[in-house]
Amino acid sequence: METGQEWTIPLFRYLADAKDCVDSGAKLIHLHPRDNKGNETLDPSIVNEVVAKVQAACGVPVGVTTQEDIEPDVQQRLHLIRGWTQPNFASVNVCEAGSFEVMKELIEMGIGIEAGVWTPEDAEKLCASEMAVQVTRILVEPGAAQVGESEDSALSMVADIHRILDTYKVFVPRLQHGDGLITWALLKDAIDRGLDTRIGLEDTLYGPDGEFVEGNKSLVQAAFNLGLGRM
Known about the structure:
Layout: E1 2-8, H1 12-23, E2 28-34, H2 44-58, E3 62-65, H3 74-81, E4 89-93, H4 99-109, E5 112-117, H5 120-127, E6 137-140, H6 144-147, H7 151-167, E7 174-176, H8 183-193, E8 196-199, H9 216-225
Parallel strand pairs: 1-2, 1-8, 2-3, 3-4, 4-5, 5-6, 6-7, 7-8
Helix pairs in contact: 1-2, 1-9, 3-4, 5-7
């Protein structure tokens, strides 16, 4: 179980929330550091500080994002990533420009890779690359942009993604999750498949019954109540 969160510097008031998630069963933390203006950033001075403090508070591996829209220029993105010393892993969306360059850089740095696969086309692209068996895990994560808010479309798409990965015999660990209105359908499907999953305010502000939640801890607890803890 991984919890997905977003963090702003200063972050001290959020560390208790992270620890509560781990105490509730989360085994990893994925976060998006932000600068003092509230903007997501890949700046190594901020990324390293945030990750180190969360690691120290929680005692679990901590990962970050390499998202293209934070830094669209591939070379500048690579430059910033080269300054990272603290993340245990980083997510890289296969569909984004420079994704395989970023993955190669992370491998050289000894940082684990979560390869974000949003569509069957992403799965084909990853499977055709040398990175397919070098990543730490594959994130099967179609979102609202890919399937709208249709649970049936989301479940059909993840089935296609898994089928492609199986066909190519890519059996690195998989973590499945979604966002918006398809969040809980994809989480329940992940549990049924025996896969890792993740949940956090980055994905949804609502519990499985549509109720507004107070924070990440409530989402983690709801996931375990659905049966995650019996895996």
